[in-house]
Design a protein that fits this description.
4-stranded mixed β-sheet; alpha+beta; about 200 residues; 8 helices; two-stranded antiparallel ribbon; about 35% helix
């Protein structure tokens, strides 16, 4: 996962040259420093945004260009401490959970446009932040959209298939095929526009 994330960080650093300084730390050899920032698990990558000497946002695990850009532009959506936001399961308790084998059957049977939120509920602040956004945005559409959620940790094959394994992703399905997709930090306006397009294309 760390090897997968390094080229992404390098690309973002290049695009923000002169405005952003990137420093890498080996959390295995610098264990004391890593522990200070909850980065003691050296098997997983951790990206922390610092401003004025303080940690303002954090990304844990494998990520994407879009998510890193989200951290830079909106660090408030990536709280440093994982327990500052409720779990996805709690925030979207009314949204049905899908398991891998159920997706195609659901797509065939649904009479409403299907939107699936791919997430990882293992204390991931990114997914938790997006879940809160979705919960607020979807209220006016609850009878017009079939909103479902899928935990990528228990549906790896499906999440890889739809390129939605590395962080929060919202995918609109047209029939049995995936259409529009949003990943990383997703704003309320992004969600609303996606739902409006889903309804109009029905």
């Amino acid at each position: 996962a760390c090897k997968q994330g390094s080229p992404l960080v390098s690309q973002v650093a290049s695009e923000h040259r002169g405005r952003l300084k990137v420093v890498k730390v080996d959390s295995y050899t610098e264990s004391q420093l890593a522990a200070q920032y909850d980065a003691g698990d050296y098997r997983a990558p951790l990206l922390i945004l610092f401003k004025d000497g303080e940690a303002h946002g954090v990304l844990k695990g494998t990520t994407s260009i879009a998510t890193i850009e989200g951290l830079i532009q909106h660090p408030e959506g990536f709280p440093f401490r994982d327990d500052t936001l409720p779990s996805v399961s709690s925030t979207l308790a009314a949204v049905p959970d899908l398991h891998g084998a159920e997706l195609q059957e659901t797509l065939k049977e649904s009479k409403l446009p299907v939107v699936v939120f791919f997430y990882n509920d293992n204390k991931d602040p990114n997914c938790r932040a997006v879940a809160s956004t979705i919960a607020a945005a979807v209220k006016p559409y609850k009878d017009k959209i079939n909103l479902l959620k899928m935990d990528t940790s228990s549906a790896r094959e499906i999440s890889y298939k739809y390129d939605s394994w590395s962080g929060p992703a919202l995918v609109l399905f047209k029939g049995a095929k995936a259409g529009e997709r949003k990943s990383g930090i997703i704003s309320k306006d992004d969600v609303t526009r996606m739902l409006e397009r889903a309804i109009s294309a029905k």
